[in-house]
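Minutes, project check-in
Item: structure for the 310-residue chain
Input as provided by the requester:
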Amino acid sequence: MLNIQSLHHIRVGVTDLAGNERFARDFGLQEAARDGQTVYFRGHGADAYCYVAAPAARAGVRAVAFLAGSPDDLDEAVRRFGATAPRALRGPGGGTAVSLTDPDGITIDIVHGIAGREPDPLLPVPVINYPGRHQRFNASQHFRPPGPARPLRLGHLGLFVGDFRRTEAWYCEVLGMRASDRMYMGAPDQPVGGFYRLDRGAQWVDHHIIGFFGMGRPGLHHMSFEVQDIEQQMVAHRHLRKQGHQPVWGVGRHPLGSHVFDLWKDPNGLRFETYSDTDLCNDQRPTGDHDVAHSEMDLWSNEPAEPYFA
């Protein structure tokens, strides 16, 4: 398997590029570069860019890029898994990529050598007063200014898949994913979805870098960008509402992974999510198996799960 470090960026096609650009800026992404009609957006973290949009006949994912640990991983992808020959990347920061194709036909780019940027400083952390644990005296809370969120990085993706078992096997074998939680229908040996993290041994990693849902037409469900905390999500939610954008769900908290999420749609129907406060896992964390008949999407809401996937 390849030594994957993280997600780096996602490429999408859109039918309404101007609408997508407006949404991306209101969401908190910053334009990093423009190559013809291809627009590269960055977050406020160390990556040169994390989201790339270009015109297309139909909106959807065009490629998902994972950052490799070394150039050797690109060579291994070619040698062991039949990836394309290495090529120079055109985006900010340069770098090299090879391409694979996952079982549903999504292009998976393995990238290395993209020069990063100096991350923007984090905002002051809220100082919370709890009963019996007071920390703020003669001082007001650190109120966040109104406006967009400050996404730090592309943290995880959700994909609809055609054949769950086939997709799971490919991502685990090729990209070294490991199941944190699976969802089944009827019995544990009938999985229909799951959340997968990087397998980095004792090193702590996010609960998942990718989620698979064996329902609907194969393709992108959502892309999720990490932000500093829930305070930022609440302020950003208000801002996106004010700008007239379409909310899907949130602000809420997922039971699997524990993270706080806020999900929106751009004018092309693409789902953008912010998240914060996710679980961290290592190789001591066993895989959880959960019956979808008893699953919940949001611990803070009584809404059924169907609208999240519609």
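Outcome recorded: The chain has five helices and 19 strands.
No further action items on this chain.
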